[in-house]
Amino acid sequence: MKQCTKCNEVKGVSEYYVRKNGGIFACCKACTKAQVNAYAVKNRTLVRTTNKLASAKFREANRDAERERLSVYRATNAELCNQRVERWRKANPHKHAARQGQRRASKLNATPSFANQKYIALFYEMARLESERLGVDVHVDHIVPLKSSLVCGLHYEHNLQLLVASANLKKSNRVWPNMP
Fold first, then answer.
1. pTM of the model
2. Distance from C-alpha of 138 to C-alpha of 127, rounded to nearest angstrom
3. Is the distance from CB of 28 to CB of 9 less than 8 angstroms?
């Protein structure tokens, strides 16, 4: 039994946090929680900034584990993620339109004069047919991405391939064989 220094109540040792060195805190768990919450409310911006920096550093240090965790989360909560994206699109139509416009402009700038538009259209038609046949989304992917920090590809028939949506999203903006 121990007396709390804040509320002066006598409580069992299990009602106190244990220090790293094995000692016991002077005030009980309830008083410690109240004290931490009061500090967080009083110093809201400092706490938020510190937490954001800490979580950003953690994500950077554990990039692969975070990518895997998010992949599993998206797979198990696909409907929820899709609803969230749809809500964002409806709330930010201007941002969505800007992104789509930027993508179209990139495609136009990356389409050479020798590109066969009929073959390109055929790829998109094949993707639609394969999606229906397989029952999963199939994307038309650029083997060498249109916009990348390493190399920029062209939007023409020899740079296109069909990929299942999950593989295409995993590939992201990378060249497939060199994907980390």
1. 0.45
2. 5
3. yes
Instruction: State which amino acid sits at residue 146.
Output: L
| pLDDT score of 22 | 74
Tokens, residue 9: 């109540």
**Secondary structure string (H, E, C) spanning the chain:** CEECCCCCCEECHHHCCECCCCCECCCCHHHHHHHHHHHHHHCHHHHHHHHHHHHHHHHHHCHHHHHHHHHHHHHHCHHHHHHHHHHHHHHCHHHHHHHHHHHHHHHHHHCCCCCCHHHHHHHHHHHHHHHHHHCCCEEEEECCCCCCCCCCCCCCHHHEEEEEHHHHHHHCCCCHHHCC
Listed range (52-56, 80-84, 156-160) with the worst mean pLDDT: 52-56
Domain locations in the chain as residue ranges = 1-61, 113-180
